[in-house]
Specification:
Blueprint lengths: L2 H8 L2 E2 L4 E4 L2 E3 L3 H7 L18 H9 L16 E3 H8 L8 H18 L9 E3 H6 L9 H17 L11 H11 L40 H14 L2 H15 L19 H4 L4 H12 L14 H5 L14 H10 L6 H22 L10
Antiparallel strand pairs: 1-2, 2-3, 4-5
Helix pairs in contact: 1-9, 9-12
Length: 374
């Protein structure tokens, strides 16, 4: 995980809209991304259950046969769940020749351990919460786990953006990392070994997900503080044209096209590995931010359409005169269009400078005051 890139991205999160606010627009992970990256089911019943923790130790013993011991001091408040170390100690290896009920118990604990560490991880990273084991009471039930994973990630992003809780971030960071690498060019690692896409026609369940493309990437070994500043500046200056151009370049390379055959714009810059970024100065980043700021297209008004009448009337400014406007404004417009002035407009134009000069003279006269005394 690239902690600096994830932190810079989380700072762009909007809890009200549940989207990342970027200069090029708004983006957010969707259910399609969850299905392609994690291959979790997005169809089925929503995972709605009672999250009350009353008597959770007794219910855990009924499901898996044991529960963590209570604290020595009854006043100590322990979270409702089991530490990962306790789960590995008691359910690390399934015994050989176990019965069907024992296999179901170990399967339930294994699923609980897996989803608690990957999909529904909390900011602490040391505990498997009881609510996820409760959802695995009936293994054959078809829950919409993909929808639950996306909603849980949204909630963790809200808490991390508002700096609530323990100050960290939870949720499926694998989903967030692969989504950002595929959608954004900021913090994208370099793929070390590109392997062909495997196919298992006899067993479709073994088909890889979209995360297979990012299975072997380079690690970020630079200073996280400096990289965080660099990633923040890149997000501030990222445009839709640059992001699309880099994505099309990468797609063309996957298809076997050479770099010389790809049409690139002058504003596009090559991707820089994390190890060589430190050798560049901060002033270059600021110049890059200033230069790319002028590449944005203005929003709000639509661009003016060119028509054949514009070519005929080039160099001439056509003005429609309205009756409600004062005569001075209409006379100025006539002068711009090289139209002759009427006699009344010429007299009024000659009188206006004289009246203005007279007013200025009156304003500059000092105020006379009488002397007191004899």
């Amino acid at each position: 995980m690239n902690a600096a890139a994830l932190t810079a991205l989380v700072n762009r999160w909007s809890p009200e809209m549940h989207t990342f606010h970027l200069r090029a627009g708004e983006m957010t992970p969707t259910l399609q991304d969850v299905s392609m990256i994690l291959r979790l089911p997005i169809q089925g019943e929503p995972l709605c259950m009672n999250t009350a923790y009353d008597g959770w130790r007794r219910q855990m013993e009924d499901l898996i046969g044991m529960a963590p011991p209570p604290p020595a001091d009854p006043k100590d408040r322990t979270p409702a769940g089991a530490p990962f170390a306790w789960i590995r100690t008691h359910f690390g290896t399934c015994p050989q020749g176990a019965e069907r009920d024992t296999l179901r118990t170990y399967t339930r604990v294994y699923l609980w351990y897996t989803i608690s560490r990957t999909i529904f991880a909390d900011s602490g990273g040391k505990l498997a919460h009881w609510c996820w084991l409760k959802a695995l009471t009936v293994l054959e039930h078809r829950w919409s786990w993909g929808t639950t994973a996306l909603v849980y990630l949204y909630r963790q992003l809200d808490e991390a953006c508002r700096r609530t809780g323990s100050g960290g971030i939870g949720g499926c960071l694998l989903l967030l990392s692969v989504w950002s690498w595929d959608r954004l060019s900021v913090g994208r690692p370099r793929i070390l070994n590109e392997r062909p896409w495997p196919h298992y026609r006899d067993n479709l369940d073994r088909e890889p997900t979209w995360a297979f493309l990012w299975n072997n990437v380079s690690d970020m070994t630079s200073d996280p503080k400096i990289m965080y500043m660099h990633y923040t500046e890149e997000l501030d200056t990222l445009t839709a044209e640059q992001n699309t151009a880099r994505k099309m370049r990468r797609l063309a390379n996957l298809l076997g096209c050479r770099d010389g055959e790809i049409a690139t714009s002058s504003s596009e810059e090559a991707e820089i590995p994390d190890d060589t970024i430190l050798s560049q100065s901060i002033t270059r980043c600021k110049k890059q931010a200033t230069r790319s700021a002028y590449q944005l297209k203005p929003r709000g008004k639509a661009p003016n359409r060119y028509t054949p009448d514009d070519y005929v009337n080039r160099g001439k400014k056509v003005v429609t005169e309205e009756d409600e406007e004062p005569p001075r404004r209409s006379s100025l417009r006539r002068m711009r269009n090289d139209e002759p002035l009427s006699s009344e407009e010429e007299e009024q134009q000659q009188q206006e400078p004289r009246q203005r000069t007279k007013r200025l003279v009156l304003r500059k006269q000092p105020v006379r005051r009488g002397r007191r005394g004899g």
